[in-house]
Amino acid sequence: NTLTATATDPAGNSRSTSVTVTYQSMPPPRPTVGTIGTPPPAVTTASSVTVGGTKVAGASIWLNGTQVVTADNNTTWSATVSLIEGDNDLAFIAKDSAGASSAAATINIIRDTLPPVVTFTPPTKTNFNPVPLTGSVDDSGTVVTINGITAARNRRTFDVAVPLTLGSNTL
C-alpha cells in the first residue's frame, strides 16, 4: 500500500511525500496436535502414525518445514507421518494464505523396534567413591540403570554416581 501526504501552503505551493506500507495480518493461532482421532503414542513400533488436530479455516499445516495438509476451509486436519527409529521430534505449524506462520505445536514420538544402545566410558582407575559416570542412550524414554542404580536422564544423556568396592569393579 502506498500512502501519499500532500501539504499545500496559502500561496498555493505544495509538496507530496509517499511511503510504502506493507500490511500483514496476524499469523494464525497454533494448531492443536493429537486432539482429533487417536492420540499419538509416546512410543510405538509402527513405521508411521496418523496425527490429527484442529486449525483455523483457510490455513495449511506444515510439519518440520514440509506442507502436509493443504489450505482448506476445514477446522480439523490429519496427516500420516513416517517415523524413523528413535526420537521423532515433530513441529507442526499453521500457515495462512499470506504465508504468516503460527507458533509451533511440538510432540515427540519414539519409534522403538530395537534394543537400546548405551554408551559410557568408566575410568580404568579412580580414587573417587562413588564414581561419577556419564553416557548416552539412543532413545530418550529409556530407563538406564548401572549396577542397579537408576541414572538421571536428560533426553539422550544420563549421569549417575556408582559406589565402588575396593579393588576391581564391573560396571
Number of strands: 15
The largest sheet is: 5 strands, mixed
Structural class: mainly beta
Please give the radius of gyration in angstroms: 28 Å
Strand content: over 45%
Pick out the low-confidence regions.
none
Shape: elongated
Mean pLDDT: 91
**Secondary-structure element order, N to C:** EEEEEEEEEEEEEEE
Determine the number of helices (DSSP H or I, runs of at least 4 residues): 0
Can you give the helix content as a percent range?
Answer: under 10%
How far apart the termini lie comes to 70 Å
Q: Provide the spatial order of strands within the biggest beta sheet.
A: 3-9-8-5-6
Structure description:
The protein has 171 residues and is mainly beta. The mean pLDDT is 91. It has no helices and 15 strands. Helices cover 0% and strands 46% of the residues. The strands form five sheets. It has a five-stranded mixed β-sheet with strand order 3-9-8-5-6, with no helix packed on it. The protein has strands spanning 2-8, 14-20, 43-44, 48-54, 60-63, 66-69, 76-82, 86-95, 105-111, 118-120, 131-137, 145-146, 149-150, 152-154, 157-162.
